[in-house]
Write a structure and sequence with these properties.
The complex is a heterodimer of chains A (574) and B (163).
Chain A lengths: L2 E3 H11 L4 E5 L5 H8 L5 E4 L3 H15 L3 E5 L3 H5 L1 H9 L4 E7 L15 H5 L5 E4 L6 H13 L5 E7 L8 E3 L19 H13 L3 E5 L1 H5 L3 H11 L3 E3 L14 E4 L6 H9 L2 E5 L5 H4 L10 E6 L13 E4 L2 H15 L5 H15 L17 H11 L5 E4 L3 H9 L8 E2 L10 H11 L5 E6 L10 H7 L4 E6 L4 H10 L15 H7 L3 E5 L2 H13 L5 E6 L9 E2 L8 E2 L7
Parallel strand pairs in A: 2-3, 2-4, 4-5, 5-7, 6-7, 9-10, 9-12, 10-11, 12-13, 13-14, 15-16, 15-17, 17-18, 18-20, 19-20
Antiparallel strand pairs in A: 1-8, 21-22
Chain B lengths: L1 E9 L4 H11 L6 E6 L5 E9 L2 H13 L3 E6 L5 E12 L4 H11 L3 E5 L3 E8 L1 H11 L4 E6 L3 E4 L8
Antiparallel strand pairs in B: 1-3, 1-4, 2-3, 5-7, 5-8, 5-9, 6-7
The chains are: A alpha/beta (574), B alpha+beta (163).
Organism (chain B): Azotobacter chroococcum
Catalytic activity (chain B): 2 pyruvate + H(+) = (2S)-2-acetolactate + CO2
Family (chain B): Belongs to the acetolactate synthase small subunit family.
Amino acid sequence: MELLSGAEMVVRFLRDEGVKYIYGYPGGALLHIYDALFKEKEVTHILVRHEQAATHMADGYARATGKAGVVLVTSGPGATNAVTGIATAYMDSIPMVVISGQVPSTMVGSDAFQETDMIGVSRPIVKHSFIVKHPSEIPEVLKKAFYIAESGRPGPVVVDIPKDMGDPTQKYEYVYPKKVKLRSYSPALRGHSGQIRKAVEMLLAAKRPVLYSGGGVIMGRAAAQLTELAQMLNLPVTNTLMGLGGYPGNDRQFLGMLGMHGSYTANLAMHHSDVILSVGARFDDRVVNGAAKFCPNAKIIHVDIDPASISKTIKADVPIVGPVDSVLTEMISIVKEIGVMPQKDVVASWWKQIDEWRGARGLFPYDKGDGSIIKPQTVIETLYEVTKGDAYVASDVGQHQMFAAQYYKYAKPNRWINSGGLGTMGFGFPAAMGVKLNFPEADVACVTGEGSIQMNIQEMSTCLQYDLPVKIINLNNGALGMVRQWQDMQYNSRYSHSYMESLPDFVKLAEAYGHVGMRITELKDLKPMMEEAFALKDRLVFLDIAVDTSEHVYPMQIRDGAMRDMWLSKTERT
Amino acid sequence: MRHIISLLMENEPGALSRVVGLFSQRNYNIETLTVAPTEDPTLSRLTLTTIGQDEVIEQITKNLNKLIEVVKLVDLSESAHIERELLLVKVKATGAQRAEIKRTTDIFRGQIVDVTSSVYTIQLTGTSDKLDSFLHAIGTSSILETVRSGVTGIARGDKVLTI
């Protein structure tokens, strides 16, 4: 029998759970736990410079691996600084366990120094939360936290631990709980067979089918099954922003992202479809546009692990609640069993139509200009070439995010790391750091803008401490590009607070933090300098790239319209 | 349409705040709410009434079911059920009014549970409609104070909500 203090149990549990890295920041309420960490050899703590970055690092790791990222923050401001990162993970269904310190249980409720009701503050943005009432329950509570975070529709779980629960003088028996059971929580293990068969029959009979998949396919580890089914039935595939990489982005059957900034081809295919197979997506407002006008002739098959996602905004004709991997596997075997493929001429005429929409200019055509100024789209295309399409790309939020989604062709799942649901500026850089730490051999790029990067730029210091040579691709247009775009389109170009005055010299700033900075202003330098940056394997390189301020992201759907209603450029619309 | 949703949840601190929080967070409304532990002290039974379109009610029940602490849930209004609410009301009772109020209370099968020279305290159980009708019959001018428990209910017949 092993006797451990509550603080030692926290650290020991993390080791037994196989956690390699945790991301955090110490403080009064956590000192017992940090003292236990001091003696720990297998679990490595990464000291960030701001707690928000700790959550995004854990999140980046979780998105790249599918496993829960672990965050350790102190009570009060430590916990509240983590809130944005928790909300980011919640909106995108990312597994995360956040251990927050709390004032001693005897002082809870007394407005003690650094006291915040973290359970209350985080309640609307967690999958679940626990407060530890006795040190002996720490292993079981933590096991439940990991189980809940990683199973079903994943999400963040907060475990609030009052300081006295870690008292080093009070020792209790420690046993690692291999399994836990919750009577009130049992995510579906498979979909309804009758419904799955019905869905397959509908797909086989469809004349204009589209497969629309989302982040559920990435986190549900179902990209291989999705690809197999799509290729078997020759289905056109579109991905949501969260679902990119769920189907190879460079394949002929891929129509690009759909929705607000989706491709003309994908949005038209959706609008004219007769059967939509939606897998692990939630018919988000950035996808459906005006719900009343959404895909008027389509029957909808909706596969999702979360019953509450089904028929929330768009009514499903065939709802299937279940893990996407097992449902897709079952669909594949039913197709094989039936042995009847969709009629060749029907499929061919649908593809002919789609190829007409796609045209000769590809999915996301843009005006390359005369080369006197670097277009942001060109930067992403160059990044794709330089990294041979095989990098992890973490993005911040704004125009650069949309360009990175449109022009980098993600061939594999878990490579595209972005804050889709919450749209958190400041996410990209720490998320890239979390990926790089866990995949030191891989190329990891952070695509950002001069607005977003400044929201967590202090983490350059963390990168130096832990040797995290990510490549920062700063699309510097001197403006909050997406805000400016909306102001151009809807506010008669009144640029209210959308420009960044007094920008720092990013090259010098990177150098001040001990890294390499490069400024690119000429198109001819773009590729060679980017190659040079990626060749510096062991250095963080900050590429500050001057890009066209006036550029807009297109297509852009017209608000409250149908899927097919889009601006295609500043002057053309559908 | 009005729905009566009844659920069993873990009898733990914080569980109730998650249920209530869900309603404000997702812009659903709660008309009434009652909660108390069951014969199994690890479980609480919570009953609430809410008004909404079918799609909204569907989302409410799905999201309630998603809460980790909610063990089981039933929408009582989907089938035959018994619905009760308790009302305590203090009314002015002087002179001729005393006999009139006593008669009205008898008609509604209520009980006068406390008496002073000028005040009756009346207890009445029934559906919310019945309580509303009683208050209407008594007349607002003589009512001094009312307190209602909120709706609770149970399915008719063999159906039970249990784990």
